[in-house]
């Protein structure tokens, strides 16, 4: 195996993990508070900018983030949950969920994708939403109660330390969140750990262009805006492979920033050897 010779200072994962986590938590806590308070102006601003910052919204169509992306794919989610979505895609559209499956949503936010998944896996299935932000968890639980679902639960924790046993879920989904983590290597290894043999990963995430500039990488606002910490397509595929995933498929869907695109990322854990 070839060794990664990129200097650590030039890698997005080299940024101080705790400061990134704190900035991300506050950014999304504020978004949750606006949604919970019914602040229409703030909610519209959050939906327009999605998980991105003003620098994105001024250079690309704002509709590339947020609830408008769901269209006919929102069945099961409340209007409030969809309007509070800050994602860059619709992972449930490609997750191929089946009745009875167990699904884990990494960075579940307002619970949009959890509620959609709950409808698809049915009463014998289970959906777990993981988020580190108490305000988002409160909002998601309120949306779940409004939707009247009883096959979901929301758990507080970090993507780098998923508080679940190994080999417990069939599908891992995520929507514009993995890019926010300081150490994507650990996050994807954790996703692999909790998946059963043959389990699937289906996420929407931001992918950085190979020539993304240093100033963007160093901009803290661009990190909370889902761009500065994003992996390139090559690095994403390599990191998934190192975590134990196979059949990696990365399909770009739309541009979200002058230096980044949204993409659907799919992969699976090998079946247990017979």
Protein model, in words:
The protein has 274 residues and is α/β, with parallel strands linked by helices. It has a single domain, classed as 3-Layer(aba) Sandwich (Rossmann fold), CATH 3.40.50.150. The chain is built from 10 helices and 7 strands. The protein has a 7-stranded mixed sheet with strand order 3-2-1-4-5-7-6, with helices on both faces. Helix 1 runs parallel beside helix 6 and helix 7 packs across helix 10. The longest helix has 20 residues. It is globular and about 45 Å long. The two termini are 27 Å apart.
Largest sheet, described in full? 7 strands, mixed
Count of separate DSSP helical elements: 10
N-to-C order of helices and strands: HHHHEHEHEEHEHHHEE
Distance between the termini: 27 Å
- Assign the CATH topology: Rossmann fold
Can you give the helix content as a percent range? 25-40%
Radius of gyration: 17 Å
Number of strands: 7
Q: CATH superfamily assignment? A: Vaccinia Virus protein VP39
Instruction: Name the structural class.
Output: alpha/beta
Oligomer: single chain
Share of β-strand residues: 15-25%
CATH class category:
Alpha Beta
Name of the CATH architecture: 3-Layer(aba) Sandwich
Strand order across the biggest sheet?
A: 3-2-1-4-5-7-6
Number of domains: 1
Q: What coarse outline follows from CA principal-axis ratios? A: globular
Mean pLDDT: 78
């Amino acid at each position: 195996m070839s060794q990664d010779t990129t200097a650590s200072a030039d890698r997005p994962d080299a940024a101080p993990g705790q400061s990134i986590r704190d900035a991300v938590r506050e950014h999304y806590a504020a978004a949750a508070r606006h949604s919970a308070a019914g602040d229409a102006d703030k909610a519209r601003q959050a939906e327009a900018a999605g998980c991105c910052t003003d620098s994105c919204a001024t250079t690309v169509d704002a509709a590339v983030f947020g609830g408008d992306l769901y269209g006919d794919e929102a069945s099961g989610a409340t209007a409030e949950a969809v309007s509070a979505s800050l994602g860059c895609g619709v992972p449930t559209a490609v997750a191929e969920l089946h009745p009875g499956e167990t699904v884990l949503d990494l960075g579940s936010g307002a619970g949009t994708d959890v509620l959609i998944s709950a409808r698809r896996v049915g009463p014998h299935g289970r959906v777990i939403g993981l988020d580190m932000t108490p305000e988002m968890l409160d909002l998601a639980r309120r949306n779940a109660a409004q939707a009247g679902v009883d096959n979901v639960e929301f758990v507080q924790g970090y993507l780098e330390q998923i508080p679940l046993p190994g080999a417990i879920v069939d599908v891992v989904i995520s929507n514009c969140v993995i890019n926010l983590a300081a150490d994507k290597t650990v996050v994807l290894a954790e996703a692999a750990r909790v998946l059963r043999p043959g389990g699937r990963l289906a996420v929407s995430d931001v992918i950085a262009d190979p020539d993304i500039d240093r100033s963007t990488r160093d901009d803290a606002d661009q990190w909370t805006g889902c761009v500065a910490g994003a992996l390139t397509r090559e690095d994403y595929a390599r990191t998934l492979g190192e975590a134990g995933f196979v059949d990696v498929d990365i399909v770009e869907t739309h541009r979200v920033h002058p230096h980044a695109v949204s993409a659907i990322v799919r992969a699976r854990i090998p079946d247990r050897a017979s």
